[in-house]
């Protein structure tokens, strides 16, 4: 289940890409399939072990183009262990809402992105997330859970200003390129979960809707794809923003 549109990101075979906060690796795997040189980055060693195993399995099964590379790296989003301008593309999907010092994390993403490169950032969308928080304290009080709700304007502002120097003068200012909304079918599921109890997986309504989502993900029936296309701009659970880093200009 992908959140980022890799065509809008401009991903090409051979690009060096960073999946920051990769989790179980869903975006990293797809970028690897598309022939990129992928680094899956996370602070969770157990998650990264599973991602590394699947990278190996994909290579063994011949699921990736010749020349594509993939590796995992454990570390802190506030101190990325990469050189300035190392990556052509960066994905940070559903991670910033978990980080207290989000501006510092965004600055690190901008630092390691090359001039001319592109960045995709996704976070929970404001309205669906507000409803979740209103329905359930447990939803956002869980350890490692969401600590803030972004508006579109706030996140765009934080990313476009992230390259400014400490004194406020322009540095590597980012350019906002556009937005998407994703996973409209998933929003009602989380409203249901928050209403009946986020850990109450056995509730009949939650179980029934979960089966619907599994059907959507595994079979992609046309009816549900059409429903998602209608619901995404209305109540899509994820906001996806795309940015580019301008090419360096001569002084």
From TrEMBL:
SUPFAM superfamilies from the UniProt entry: S-adenosyl-L-methionine-dependent methyltransferases (SSF53335)
What Pfam family is a match, any one?
A: Methyltransf_11
Record has Cytoplasm as a keyword: no
Checking InterPro entries in the record gives:
Methyltransf_11 (IPR013216), SAM-dependent_MTases_sf (IPR029063)
Tell me the GO BP annotations in alphabetical order: methylation
Keyword line: Methyltransferase, Transferase
User: Listed GO molecular functions?
Assistant: S-adenosylmethionine-dependent methyltransferase activity
Supply the PANTHER family for this chain.
MALONYL-[ACYL-CARRIER PROTEIN] O-METHYLTRANSFERASE, METHYLTRANSFERASE
The record places domain Methyltransferase type at 18-120
Q: Which organism is it from?
A: Nocardioides flavescens
Is Transferase given among the entry's keywords?
Answer: yes
Q: What is this protein called?
A: Methyltransferase domain-containing protein
Q: Which CDD domains match?
A: AdoMet_MTases (cd02440)
